[in-house]
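for the writeup, i need someone to sanity check this before i put it in the appendix. the sequnce is what the collaborator sent (i think, or maybe the updated version? ugh). structure was predicted straight from it, no edits. if anything looks off just tell me and ill rerun, i have time this weekend
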Amino acid sequence: MEEFKSGFVTLVGRTNVGKSTLLNSLAKEKVAITANKVQTTRTAIKAILNDEKYQIIVTDTPGIHRPKTKLGETMVDTAFTMFSEVDVILFLIEATSDEIGRGDRRILDKIIESKKPCILVINKIDLVQKDKLLNLISLYSKEYDFKAVVPISASKDDGTEVIVNELVKLLPVGPKYYADDEYTDQTMRQIAEEIIREKALKLLDDEVPHGIYVEVESFKDRVTTKGQDIYDIDATIYCLRESHKGIIIGKGGNLLKRIASYARQDLEKMLDTKVNLKVWVKVKEDWLEKDNIVNKFKLK
């Protein structure tokens, strides 16, 4: 009988290379928010891949960037701290790269230092010619003895099965760490916070999203007088400036209504029931530098 494999994997890469999209593709569930904005992921988010032959716990980490705030420093520390705690590293780069850039070099140096088994995953292969891809593979293969190199298109869900197969080869024989029906370690409250932030990221101007975070104050289920299940969720979007508050709310409250409406639709799909979502906006200046808030994003 084939022995059961299990273990821990970290997914690392620069900001905006498609880590969250890949995580969702691997999990076949929405566990990480996605947006065409840098630093979308702020903390380590786990996806649990279950099969009769394996259980793989993949952690999406914040994108590597040059930090300018305490939050930024915490995000980068979280990404690199994971290296010492996993069995395998998934290093995600973009196929459109012509060279090993500064950010990728920093990650590569940390991987070399860790001496951990690593799979190089090259994303967005649909955007380049084959010869460019081969040059990139050659360039990286000279730097480290990768256990496998897997070209993929995360947005098209192309190549993810190959990643799973390569991971199973590298993982040790081990137990199940989570129940078969679990696909993430996040609470429903945390997922709701992230979904609201995702909608805000997608609808807001570029200068505002980096300065927001979301807190769900209340998350309760009840039965209506008509016998229908419903969740009452109260949340607050915090921003850095009064001017940002006005932008988030929008003229006549229009933008905030759209954020809440799109978030509610996602939450109803996820919870498979009606949701009554109320969202407020408050100013909390300099929260990016406040330990009591930034500590929320530290690796637990």
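The longest helix spans residues 254-271. Strands lie at 5-13, 45-50, 54-60, 88-94, 118-123, 148-151, 213-223, 229-239, 274-283.
thx in advance!!
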